[in-house]
Prior knowledge:
mainly alpha, about 0% strand, flat
Amino acid sequence: MSSAVLFDAPGPATVRRHRLYTVATVVGLLAVIAFVLLRLNAEGQFAYAKWEVLVTPKYVEALLIDGLVNTLKMAFSSIIAAVVFGVVFGVGKLSEHSWVRWPCWAVVEFFRAVPVLLMMIFFFYEVKVAGGVTNGSTGAYWSVVAALTVYNGAVLAEVFRAGVLAVPKGQAEAAYAIGMRKTQVMTLVLLPQAVKIMLPAIISQCVVALKDTSLGYAIGAISLSTVGRSIYNGFQNQIQVVFVVALLYIAVNYLLTLLATYVQHRLVGEKSPLDLTRAGNMQGGENTGGAGIV
């Protein structure tokens, strides 16, 4: 009955029409894919010589070790730092003191507005000129990490702020009523409950940070995109290299999503958050007649 209130069940004619649309869409997509494959074949893009470098151990090692490992290092470092940045400035924006709240607001809004690539270039030349770093790869690495940290940290600050505000006000009021200080209320009551609300957005931002490491090619940071560019510049096989690099990014992002989903289910209990009928939840309460459940 509830579904019928929202929309009418489709009739036979509508069902047939929707099936026709589905078939037409599938046929159209297959036609586009076939056209692209035929054009690539006509241009000789499936020739073994174009793909040979991608099965050569030397270049496979370069992609996986020099490219993928450095990409993961930059992403991991920036994500950890961005979470810390986001917590500090997200909580700062909730402060009752204006001298804390407004500077935090200005920092978050500024770094959310500036493009990541511009920040990478700025940090790179600042490190190179002001810091006196002679190792260009080291300076580029930390420039990418710094740019991704401040950008993703600014986004996560808004995520944390929204997550804390989404927790019912009664939780904080109850904590204050039993004598907790504001710091205790935030760290022990609000933030743990807000994690469940914030986790999907945090996962999405982790994926964004991982993909944005590819922008490091502009300053010479060693990553998948940089190694891939060096390979296709030497062998003129841009399509093949970009295809393989894209597959690596997709695989890593998919694994990251699976890991984050597992952590969410394991720590937050998203699979069955309201399941009170399992044996583990009813220990000591079998004979209470439900009196122990509020």
